[in-house]
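quick q for whoever's on today - can somebody do inverse folding on this one?? i tried earlier but teh output was garbage lol. C-alpha cells:
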C-alpha cells in the first residue's frame, strides 16, 4: 500500500528530448560567412567543458501551479532532473532520496510545517534544503536556518535567483578542482586564486564574468574560440540569434587590457567566427592605415596614396 501511495504521490518530470529543427541559413548569410581559419575549433573539437559537472537533481514540494511551470521550464533548459513531491510522502523517505536539493514551501504543509522541517533536518539528509514561500517573518527565517535549512527565499522570486541559490548551496561540494596556478600572457598575469588579472602588479579591475572570459580564452592557446561556444561555457544555454552578449563582454575586456598594457594587442577578432587571445607586441610605428581615420593618417601616407 505504501509503495502504491508513493507511486501516486511522486510525479517525475523529464525534459523533452525533441528539439525543433534548426533554420537553415539563407543564401545571403552563406555568402557573408567568413572562411574558418585553420586554427579555429568547434565545440565538439574543444571537447567537454572541464569545469562542467553532472546535471543537478532537484525535488520540489509546492502547490503553486504557475511557480511550478516556470521553474520546470528553467530546470529543463539547464537539463537538470527534477520531480514534484506531494505532502503525503514521509520525511524519512524524502531524506533517503538521491537528490541534490529540495525546494519546499511550508504553506503546503500547514500547521505541521515546523515539525515536518525539524524531522527532515534531524534525519540529516545529504541534499540541501531551500525554503521558498510567500510570507515570512525574521523569527521564522532565523528559526529555519538554525534548524538546518540551507537557504530561505521569498516569493515572488525570479527563477534565475532560485537557480543561483541552488547552485550556491550545492556547488561547494560538486565544484571540480580548479587550477590556481597563475598564467602569464604578454604583460598580463592571470591569477585564478584571486579571480583577477594584473599588469606590473596592478589589477585590471575585471568583473567576475570578464575574468571568466579571459581565463576561457587563455585556456584555448592560440586557437579561435567560437562565439557560440563562449556563450555556452559562460552563460549555459544556447545563444539566441543576433545575441551580442559575447561581443559586449569581449569589447569591455579588450578596452581594459589596452588601457593597462597599451604596448600589446591581446584579443583578435575573427569576423563571423569568434575570438582568439594571443599577445602581440606593437610598436609606435606599426599602426596600419586601415586602423586610422582618413583625417588622422600621416602626411607621408596621404602623399604616397
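ok took a stab at it. sequence:
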Amino acid at each position: 500500500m505504501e509503495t502504491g501511495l508513493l507511486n501516486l504521490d511522486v510525479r517525475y518530470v523529464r525534459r523533452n528530448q525533441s528539439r525543433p529543427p534548426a533554420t537553415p541559413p539563407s543564401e545571403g548569410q552563406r555568402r557573408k560567412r567568413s572562411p574558418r581559419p585553420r586554427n579555429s575549433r568547434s565545440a565538439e573539437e574543444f571537447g567537454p567543458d572541464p569545469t562542467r559537472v553532472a546535471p543537478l537533481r532537484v525535488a520540489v514540494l509546492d502547490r503553486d501551479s504557475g511557480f511550478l511551470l516556470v521553474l520546470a521550464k528553467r530546470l529543463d533548459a539547464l537539463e537538470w532532473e527534477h520531480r514534484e513531491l506531494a505532502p503525503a510522502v514521509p520525511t524519512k523517505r524524502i531524506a533517503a532520496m538521491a537528490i541534490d536539493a529540495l525546494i519546499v514551501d511550508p504553506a503546503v504543509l500547514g500547521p505541521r510545517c515546523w515539525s515536518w522541517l525539524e524531522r527532515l533536518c534531524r534525519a540529516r539528509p545529504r541534499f540541501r534544503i531551500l525554503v521558498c514561500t510567500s510570507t515570512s517573518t525574521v523569527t521564522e527565517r532565523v528559526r529555519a536556518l538554525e534548524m538546518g535549512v540551507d537557504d530561505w527565499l521569498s516569493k515572488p522570486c525570479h527563477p534565475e535567483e532560485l537557480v543561483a541559490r541552488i547552485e550556491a548551496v550545492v556547488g561547494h561540494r560538486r565544484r571540480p578542482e580548479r587550477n590556481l596556478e597563475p598564467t602569464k600572457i604578454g604583460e598580463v598575469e592571470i591569477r585564478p586564486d584571486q579571480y583577477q588579472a594584473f599588469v606590473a602588479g596592478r589589477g585590471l579591475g575585471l568583473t567576475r564574468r570578464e575574468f571568466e572570459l579571459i581565463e576561457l580564452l587563455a585556456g584555448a592557446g592560440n586557437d579561435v574560440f567560437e562565439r557560440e561556444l563562449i556563450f555556452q561555457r559562460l552563460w549555459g544555454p544556447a545563444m539566441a540569434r543576433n545575441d551580442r552578449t559575447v561581443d559586449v563582454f569581449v569589447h569591455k575586456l579588450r578596452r581594459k587590457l589596452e588601457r593597462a598594457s597599451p604596448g600589446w594587442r591581446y584579443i583578435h577578432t575573427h569576423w563571423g567566427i569568434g575570438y582568439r587571445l594571443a599577445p602581440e607586441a606593437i610598436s609606435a610605428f606599426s599602426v596600419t592605415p586601415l586602423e586610422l581615420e582618413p583625417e588622422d593618417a600621416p602626411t607621408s601616407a596621404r602623399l604616397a596614396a
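fwiw The chain has two domains: 2-15+36-174, 183-295. also Residues 183-295 form a domain with the Arc Repressor Mutant, subunit A fold (CATH 1.10.10.10). so keep that in mind when u check it
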